[in-house]
What does this fold into?
Amino acid sequence: MCQAFSCLFLKNGEVLWRFGVDSHEDLIRAAKLLDDGRKQTFVRVEITPRNGSYLRPAGWVYRVDQADTPKWYRAEFAEEECRKAHAEWLKKLRAILPEQDIIDPFGVPPPNEITPAHLALLREWASVGASVGNSVGNSIRASVRASVRTSVVDSVRNSVRDSVLASVWASARASIKASVWASVWGSVWDSVWAYIGSLFRVPRVAWKNTEHIPGDGYPFQPAVDLWHQGLVPSYDGMTWRLHGGPDVRVLWEGKI
It folds into this structure.
């Protein structure tokens, strides 16, 4: 499976890559290169974060993504040139996805009491969900992938999921009746996706299905503001709840 950053190291020493394109095969087709398996004029290369995180990479690993290399391939020179190209790619990525830490909302001390200001954010978030029409997650996935178009999006999603959802799954089910939990899980995912989207710097006009959401900032900001205050909403179709703390307890529930 191709990963970002993917490139082709050519026989003449050039490195072929395109921001937002993960697939070696797409690069090959775009450049109209011949890949007949006998007379290789390029080598498939990937450079990926050692720890799998594009938010906080622990070094970058160079790897040839094919079984054999042609006789003309010189590993040391090829890696040096590919890493130069990777540095240019990384500049473009950082303009959209700055290096940053993941915030676990259940590691943030929640407020001692839920105030009208918190409920105002919750009302805004409920209004946003109603305006988007389809799921918030679908809107954010489509918007970010249209700007980045790479496996970076999936990597960030997985990093946030692994950091946050494990604690939610273990604790929130204990704080809500099992019969209700199945109906609120989608709304919790919407908050997770809203936070994921906030990690990317995407122009306001690029956020899809948000034409009816007022304002010129990030359209899903109410959920992010709650997230930063240690609060994650859930909704079962009738009742809203605000969860917080390491045990993901219900801090408020009611209708808005």
Summary: Strands lie at 6-10, 15-16, 42-49, 60-64, 232-235, 240-244, 249-254. The chain has seven helices and seven strands. The chain has two domains: 6-96, 105-254.
